[in-house]
Structure formats: structure tokens, C-alpha cells
Design a protein that fits this description.
The complex is a heterodimer of chains A (289) and B (615).
Chain A (H helix, E strand, L loop, with lengths): L2 H4 L4 H13 L2 H19 L4 H5 L25 H37 L1 H16 L2 H12 L3 H27 L3 H9 L3 H37 L11 H9 L7 H32 L2
Helix pairs in contact in A: 3-5, 3-12, 5-6, 5-8, 5-10, 6-8, 7-8, 8-10, 9-10, 10-11, 10-12, 11-12
Chain B lengths: L3 E12 L2 E13 L4 E5 L6 H8 L9 E9 L2 E2 L5 H7 L4 E4 L3 H4 L6 H11 L7 H14 L5 H5 L8 H13 L5 E5 L7 H18 L2 E6 L2 H7 L2 E6 L2 E7 H6 L4 H9 L49 E2 L5 E2 L2 H4 L20 H4 L7 E16 L4 E17 L3 E5 L6 H8 L7 E6 L2 E2 L5 H10 E4 L13 H11 L6 H10 L16 H13 L5 E5 L7 H18 L2 E6 L2 H5 L4 E6 L2 E7 H6 L4 H9 L9
Parallel strand pairs in B: 3-8, 3-9, 6-7, 7-8, 15-20, 15-21, 18-19, 19-20
Antiparallel strand pairs in B: 1-2, 1-4, 4-5, 9-10, 10-12, 11-12, 13-14, 13-16, 16-17, 21-22
Helix pairs in contact in B: 4-5, 4-7, 5-7, 7-8, 18-19
The chains are: A mainly alpha (289), B alpha/beta (615).
Chain lengths: 289, 615
């Protein structure tokens, strides 16, 4: 079944059928499972802050076992509890940094693509300049300039991802603006903001959804890297990236220290990538029309 | 013995739960050296039939092909892919509609032809022998300077030359059967005739049979020995071309002939449109598939599928009515009842029409940018000093081939382009400078209907929202009743309001686009090739609708088209454009009867004048 057939019925029915289609896809189910797990972890974490920061010199670097299911780290803290705590940053990265990049990037791309002229020149040259740097190097530079910390890491991630959205949206708008239905709307005098919102933005929805999922995985990687380097989440707050970093020193004495947070990062990134994949399969059938 | 014999060909496409019977029980014969025209509208199964001869239909399970296709006695449907390859291109070759996508843009014309020759000759051949063959093929296809063409890439050739290169590619291995699928549809009118003549000459010189797949009865009349008419996947009439066109035995053939707009027809005459739309192949009506649209249908037509019965030597037709003695020849099919009953002359009296829109020395130059800083290095003059007037309640047709600047000209009136020089005025308003109240007037009073019924409606909006938009922008009430009345004025029902554009056929979408255009009661509508993408039977309906709306509301049309025949039924005045300039401009009567410019004469000579009577 394709979206082309779906579009013949009412929009509520379409949404319902689309949802059923997606829920039959193992990739979507996997991604949702991971997201629910991370969400639950983030919700629980405020209640176990004591556990995750409590040090115990009597139980350093224990392997997984009773008492501490996933073992303890070099300060005797419970790895399981710290994993749960690390979910908070992941949620923040996706919701705040990626969310901001999506909104700002889309608006900039819409304006640049539709208005053209100097707006396009200014926005796109800036975007080109930012994209010219490797993503992580740019993020590092920004955090280094602003100073280490979670908030600055979020800002840095948002800044490096925004140009990606702007560029994607601008390209799509350039082709959409020449469509006859847009011309027809211009001719009757539909105001530009309304025109962008009603005749251009809805056609970007599918592409943006897929792209957002992909960028979310990039953002999670970036946060992991920044925290790994000590520029993101600051001790004693837990972050998966920072946990992997500190664990590398103790790989020979306790493998669990690096492997479990690494696994959490891996699952999160895989979930976003697979979700993007599944979404693309659904929306592409429409785009070929 | 026939060269090609098709017996009981059935082709089914399955997508999900839907099964589409694209071709049902088709029997065809092509003798050596003969030209057979396969005629029908989109979805009639003509192209699928042609593709299945070459085994080019999609693989199972999407597509299932049944029956027999024998080429000099050998059943092609049973052949393995490797055996089929030897036949394909070697003994049976194909020319497609769009030469741009049929040729590989990354290889020279020469390479493509020599590859084709090599793959159908035993053993390796020397390079100069292959080159010689390629040059010969290009010469046969009447491409000038063949040695030069060998080294050229497809993008360096014009559309007509590209189609000649594609023909050279097809005939390089000297096939005994050439299948041409709408070989001239994508080309300009003046080139179409030459290409068809080349195909005809090749057929005689190489003693090659030709299967000509087309929707154009003018092409059929001039270039085929026998004709098979297809409707809804079946052959409904077959016989010698002259007999089929002069004395059709199937009401559909008759109706198709009547619906074809001709330059020889009386001016501004209502076309004899076929009502309704072609049937959905996944949900065919019971009985004769044409019966819902047939003016002669009686009860038995709606229950029994008519068999092909003999109507003379080498002639068959599938119609119960004519088989039982009904005569449909001579009498033209009844003019369809119009939903607007107002006749043209009564409402649009000769109250001297005033100039509504005026183009004065309009030029539109597109800049060519180059170099590091994107400086203007030159310009392309799309429109070059054009002066025209559109009178209220009248139709000005701007006729020209692709690239003549006719669409660019109309875009200056629609405020989609700013003229580089000259002045476009609407009712005294300078269009490019309009502000405030003047701008609001333009937005209400000047509307547009575009060519593609698929691109002009936002696919993500319901028809209700699409129709409501112009009204909402201009602060008018948008009750459902009003929108329903709008749809009614273009012959669609209220139930269409809640559906999306994808649910409608091309003709229906074009009606919706017209409903949107008339919603603000405009005084001028720009029709940019508004019927070019539609099938003949549907085209006539839409042209009649536009005529009715003009008669009822006194709307003026600026009608942009490449087809002089189409214009005949709507135009009061005609302007012929070539290379950005108007070469002929005057009342339609005069332009058709006494064309002054050579180019106009050439266009007229290449347009279908008559389909049957001339034979």
C-alpha cells in the first residue's frame, strides 16, 4: 500500500493507517522500545541521584553481580544507576538541541529558498561557512569558546546541526516554489507566510521527519564525544559519553565500565537511524509521485 | 503468413489487492511490410500491448502476460531472456515517445549505434565497418551530416534530430518489425510530419513492418494501412484505415473522430465531446466497457460484452448495435447536452468589446550568469517586443512551438515575471507596478489554468480547501453550498469536496482547476496549454466547458497553445509566435483562411485538417 492510495481518503483515516503501517515495521518497534526505555530512565533519574553519585571506596571496579547488577566504577558508584541518569542528557540533546536546530534551520531555509536575493545569499553563505568545518571540530570550538558544561554543549550541538536543516529545506523549497499550485496561490494573492505554511511546509514534512531522526543520532554522537572529552556533562553528573571515557582507563580491570554506556549510545543511535530508514520507506512512495 | 501474430493476449497488473486488466483478449496480425496503427486514449492498453511484444513488461508477479505472440512462427512469450535479446533490437526494434530519455546522455550517438549493430552481428567486426553501418543508419534516418553526428552527444541535438538518432539506433540492425510508441507526440508540430514521413520511407525502403502506437487520428489517417482501435484493454474495431475512419462500425471510433479538434472545422463551434471518463481498468463496467458513455447504448449493451464480429473483408468491430443494423456513419454523434444551456450568441452580444489587457512592446530577457562572481554575461530573449490586445469576453489564442516565448509572455500578465522592457496593462493598471487596491483587483480578476492537471492542485489539500483558498484570501464567505455550486458549474458533484486531488482523473482535476479559477468571478483567465495533457475525448469536454463559461460570464481568455486545431473551437483572435516575436496576428477567421506568414502556413499544413473526409 502506498501513500498515493491513502491520500484518497480523509486525513484522519490516513493518519490511522499510516500509524498501523509503521507499527508493523520491526525497525519502528525497536526504535520506540529504545525511546520508551530512555524516557522512563530520564523520568526515574531524579529519584536516584543519591545512588548514582554515592561513592564507596570499599567496592571499586566490581564486575556485574548481585547488589550492583552492572557493577561499579572506579569510585565505587553503581554503573546501572549512572546509566539511568545519563539518559537525561540524551533526552535534552534530542528535545532541545535538535528541536531548536529543526525550527531555526527550517525557518531559515524556507526564507532563503522562497525569498532568494540577499536573504538567500546571507543565509546560505553563513551555512556554507559552518558546514565547511567538520561537525565535531566546530562543536568543540564552540564549547571551548563558551566554556565546558551541559548548556553550552547543547548550544554547540544546535549550532552545528542548524545549517544542515537550512540547506535541506532551501533545496526542497527551490523546487517546490516553481510548482503550479504555488504559482496559482501567488496569483490570487495568498500572503507569503500563509503560502509557505500551507503550500510549501506540508510537502517538507516527510523529508524533515526522516532527516530529523538522522540528525538526532548525529547529535547523540556529538554529545557523547563532547562529554567523553570532558566538555559536556560535568562530574559528578553522569553522561554516557563521559562514562565511556573514564572507563577506557580501567578496561583491563572492569570492562563493564565502558561497555554498558557504549551499548546504550549504540542502541540509541541505531534506533534513530533505523527509524529514519523506516520513515523514508513510507514517505518515499509519495515523493516519487 | 503474417510476420507478427498476437492471439488472445492478456496482460494483468497486480498491485496489492487491485488487479488491473490492462489488455484483455487482444488478437492482432501484422503482415510483412505493413503499417498497423494501434489507436486509443491513455489507459486503453495500446502501449502495454506494444511492450509485451518485446517482453518489456514488468516481471511477474507484478505483471502477468498470457496468450501467444508469434513472430515469424516463433512464440516470443515462451522465449528465454537470452533468446529474446536476439530478437529484440535485431528483428523487432522500438522507437519511444521521448527521445531524450531513450538515448543515453553520456554516450555519443555513434557509440550507441555501433554498440547496437555489434550486438546483433555474429563475430567481432572491425571498427570502420561498424562506423560505416552507423553512418548508413543515420543517413537512412535522414540526419544531415552523419559523420559529424556520430561524435555528438544527445544534448547537442534538437528534439527532432534526437528522435532521428533514436530511429537510426532502432533500424541499425535492419529489423523486420519496428514498433513506434507515440513517436511524434513529444515533438513540435512542424517536425512531426517530417519524422512520420521518414518512418514511412524507411518502411518501404527496408521492407519493414511498422506498428504505430498513437492517440492521434491525423497521424493514423496518413501513415497506416490498417488500424486497430483499443478501448479499456480490448480491441473494439479493426480494419483497413480508410474504411475504419470513413465508416466506423463502433460508436467509440465515431465519437473519437468527432471529438478531434480540426483546423478545418467551423470557428468557435462546440466540439462533440464524449461524455464521462474512460473506465477504471480495475473496476470495469459490466457489458460493453464503452456503454456508460455511448449515446446508442441499450439495455443489452450493459449486460453483454460484445464480441468482435466480421464487418467485411479484413474488418471486425465489437458493437451489438451496429451488428444489428444500426447506422452510425453519416450522422454525426449527437452534440452532448451542456450543463449550461446558454447559447453563445444570446449572452455575449456584439456590444463592442473593449481592451481588457494590453501588451505593449513587451520584452522578457533571462540573464545568463557566468564566471566566479555570477555576473551577467549575456541574456536569452524569451520574449522580444510583443504587442497584443485581449478584448473583454473574447479569446486571444497565442500559438507557437516550444521555446517561442508564449508561456513567458503570459507569465508577465500573471505577475510571475517582470518584463525587462515594455508595458503590460490590465484595464489601465500597470501590472508590474500594481499596489494596494489595484493589486487586489488583479488578484481577483486575472486567474490561471495551467497545463498539468497533476501539478496545479496542491496534493495535500482537499478539494474544499483548494476551492476555498481564493475566497478566503479576499474575505469572501466560504460556505459549503457555494463551493458545491462552483463544482456543479464545472460538472462535478458535491461529494468531491472532501476528497484529495489524487482521487480524480486528469480531466476532472482540470475541471477543479477551472472551478478554482472562476471562484472569484474573474474577467480574464490565462489558459496555459490547459487541455494539452488531456485525452482527445476529455479535451473536448474541457474546451466546451471553457466556451460555456465564457458565454455565461463574459470571461476573456488568453489561450496559450501549440495546437492550432484546439484553438479553432475557442479563438476569436490568433497570434502566432516564433522565437519570442509575434509573426502573425489577426482575427481567427483571417489567420486560418489566409495565413500571411510562412511559419503560420507551415503550422497549418502540419495540423490535422480532416481525419476521415479527406480519404
Amino acid at each position: 500500500m502506498t501513500l498515493i492510495q491513502l491520500t484518497t481518503s480523509s486525513s484522519r483515516k490516513i493518519a490511522a493507517r499510516l500509524l498501523r503501517m509503521l507499527l508493523r515495521d520491526w525497525r519502528v518497534v525497536f526504535a520506540l522500545t529504545v525511546f520508551v526505555a530512555i524516557g522512563c530512565a530520564a523520568l526515574v533519574s531524579p529519584f536516584i541521584t543519591d545512588t548514582m553519585t554515592a561513592t564507596d571506596t570499599g567496592r571499586l571496579l566490581r564486575g556485574p553481580g548481585p547488589g550492583h547488577l552492572l557493577g561499579t566504577d572506579n569510585l565505587g558508584r553503581d554503573i546501572g544507576a549512572r546509566l539511568v541518569g545519563g539518559a537525561v542528557v540524551t533526552v535534552q540533546v534530542v528535545a532541545i538541541a535538535v528541536g531548536a536546530a529543526l525550527v531555526v534551520g527550517t525557518v531559515l531555509g524556507l526564507l532563503a529558498g522562497y525569498l532568494g536575493g540577499w536573504v538567500d545569499a546571507v543565509v546560505m553563505r553563513t551555512v556554507d561557512g559552518l558546514i565547511a568545518f567538520p561537525l565535531l571540530v566546530l562543536a568543540l570550538t564552540i564549547v571551548a569558546a563558551l566554556g565546558p558544561g551541559v548548556n553550552n554543549a547543547l548550544i554547540a550541538i544546535a549550532v552545528v546541526i542548524t545549517p544542515q536543516f537550512a540547506r535541506l529545506v532551501r533545496g526542497e523549497v527551490l523546487s517546490l516554489r516553481t510548482r503550479d499550485w504555488v504559482a496559482a496561490a501567488r496569483i490570487v494573492g495568498v500572503p507569503t507566510p500563509v503560502l509557505l505554511y500551507r503550500h510549501v511546509l506540508p510537502h517538507l514534512a516527510g523529508t524533515l521527519l526522516v532527516f530529523t531522526a538522522l540528525q538526532a543520532s548525529t547529535a547523540v554522537v556529538a554529545e557523547g564525544a563532547l562529554s567523553f572529552l570532558g566538555l559536556g556533562v560535568q562530574a559528578p553528573d553522569p553522561s554516557w559519553g563521559a562514562m565511556v571515557a573514564s572507563g577506557t582507563n580501567y578496561l583491563s580491570s572492569n570492562w563493564a565500565l565502558s561497555v554498558f554506556p557504549g551499548l546504550a549510545l549504540f542502541l540509541t543511535i541505531a534506533a534513530f537511524n533505523l527509524l529514519a530508514d523506516a520513515l523514508r520507506d513510507v514517505f518515499d512512495t509519495h515523493r516519487t509521485n | 503468413m503474417s510476420l507478427l501474430e498476437i492471439e488472445n493476449l492478456n496482460v494483468q497488473f497486480s498491485t496489492g489487492k487491485r488487479t488491473v486488466h490492462a489488455v484483455s483478449g487482444v488478437d492482432l496480425r501484422v503482415r510483412a511490410g505493413e503499417s498497423l496503427a494501434l489507436v486509443g486514449e491513455s489507459g486503453s492498453g495500446k502501449t502495454v500491448t506494444a511492450l509485451s511484444i518485446l517482453g518489456l513488461t514488468p516481471p511477474a508477479p507484478t505483471c502477468r502476460v498470457g496468450g501467444e505472440i508469434r513472430f515469424s512462427g516463433q512464440n516470443l512469450l515462451g522465449l528465454s531472456e537470452s533468446r529474446l535479446k536476439a530478437v529484440r533490437g535485431g528483428e523487432v526494434a522500438m522507437v519511444f515517445q521521448d527521445p531524450t530519455s531513450a538515448l543515453n546522455p553520456l554516450l555519443t550517438v555513434g557509440t550507441q549505434i555501433t554498440d547496437a549493430v555489434q550486438s546483433h552481428l555474429p563475430g567481432r567486426r572491425r571498427r570502420d565497418e561498424l562506423r560505416g553501418r552507423a553512418v548508413e543508419a543515420l543517413e537512412l534516418a535522414a540526419l544531415d551530416k552523419p559523420l559529424e553526428r556520430l561524435r555528438q552527444y544527445p544534448h547537442q541535438l534538437s528534439g527532432g534530430m534526437r528522435q532521428r538518432a533514436a530511429i537510426a539506433l532502432a533500424i541499425a540492425a535492419r529489423p523486420r518489425l519496428l514498433i513506434a510508441d507515440e513517436p511524434t507526440t513529444a515533438l513540435d508540430v512542424t517536425v512531426q510530419g517530417e519524422i512520420m514521413e521518414t518512418l514511412g520511407r524507411l518502411r518501404r525502403e527496408l521492407d519493414m513492418a511498422l506498428v504505430l502506437v498513437t492517440h492521434d487520428l491525423g497521424v493514423v489517417a496518413e501513415h497506416s494501412d490498417r488500424t486497430a482501435v483499443m478501448y479499456a484493454g480490448r480491441i473494439v474495431e479493426q480494419g483497413p484505415t480508410q474504411q475504419v475512419l470513413a465508416n466506423p462500425q463502433m460508436p467509440y471510433t465515431r465519437a473519437l473522430l468527432d471529438a478531434t479538434p480540426l483546423v478545418g472545422a467551423p470557428p468557435k463551434e462546440r466540439l462533440r465531446a464524449i461524455g464521462g471518463a474512460p473506465p477504471d481498468l480495475a473496476d470495469l463496467p459490466e457489458g460493453c466497457a464503452f456503454s456508460p458513455r455511448c449515446p446508442y447504448a441499450i439495455d443489452i449493451c450493459r449486460t453483454t460484452v460484445p464480441e468482435l464480429t466480421r464487418r467485411g473483408p479484413d474488418r471486425v468491430a465489437a458493437c451489438i448495435r451496429t451488428d444489428n443494423g444500426l447506422v452510425i456513419n453519416g450522422t454525426k454523434s449527437p452534440i452532448p447536452a451542456s450543463f449550461s444551456t446558454v447559447s453563445k450568441s444570446s449572452v455575449n452580444p456584439a456590444s463592442s468589446p473593449k481592451v481588457l489587457a494590453r501588451f505593449t512592446d513587451v520584452a522578457l530577457h533571462y540573464p545568463v550568469r557566468g564566471g566566479l562572481l555570477g555576473r551577467k554575461t549575456g541574456y536569452v530573449p524569451a520574449v522580444d517586443g510583443v504587442s497584443l490586445d485581449v478584448y473583454s469576453g473574447n479569446t486571444l489564442a497565442v500559438v507557437g512551438e516550444s521555446g517561442s516565448g508564449k508561456t513567458s509572455l503570459s507569465r508577465t500578465l500573471l505577475r510571475l515575471e517582470k518584463p525587462t522592457a515594455g508595458l503590460v496593462t490590465y484595464d489601465g493598471i500597470d501590472v508590474s507596478q500594481a499596489r494596494g487596491r489595484d493589486l487586489a483587483r488583479l488578484q481577483r480578476e486575472v486567474q490561471v489554468v495551467f497545463q498539468s492537471p497533476y501539478a496545479s492542485l496542491d496534493p495535500r489539500m482537499t478539494i474544499q480547501r483548494i476551492l476555498a483558498e481564493p475566497l478566503r484570501v479576499h474575505g469572501e464567505p466560504v460556505e459549503r453550498d457555494r463551493l458545491a455550486r462552483l463544482l456543479e458549474s464545472v460538472g462535478l458533484g458535491e461529494d468531491a469536496l472532501d476528497r484529495y486531488p489524487a482521487a480524480f482523473s486528469g480531466g476532472q482535476r482540470q475541471r477543479i482547476a477551472i472551478a478554482r479559477a472562476v471562484s472569484l468571478r474573474p474577467r480574464l483567465i490565462v489558459c496555459d496549454e490547459a487541455v494539452s495533457a488531456l485525452d482527445v475525448s476529455v479535451q473536448a469536454q474541457v474546451l466546451n466547458l471553457l466556451g460555456d463559461l465564457q458565454a455565461e460570464h463574459g470571461i476573456a481568455y488568453l489561450f496559450i497553445t501549440h495546437d492550432l486545431g484546439v484553438v479553432r473551437s475557442v479563438a476569436d483572435e490568433v497570434a502566432v509566435m516564433q522565437a519570442g516575436q509575434v509573426v502573425e496576428y489577426g482575427p481567427a477567421e483571417r489567420v486560418y483562411a489566409q495565413p500571411k506568414h510562412n511559419y503560420t502556413r507551415e503550422l497549418l499544413a502540419n495540423a490535422p485538417r480532416q481525419t476521415a473526409g479527406a480519404l
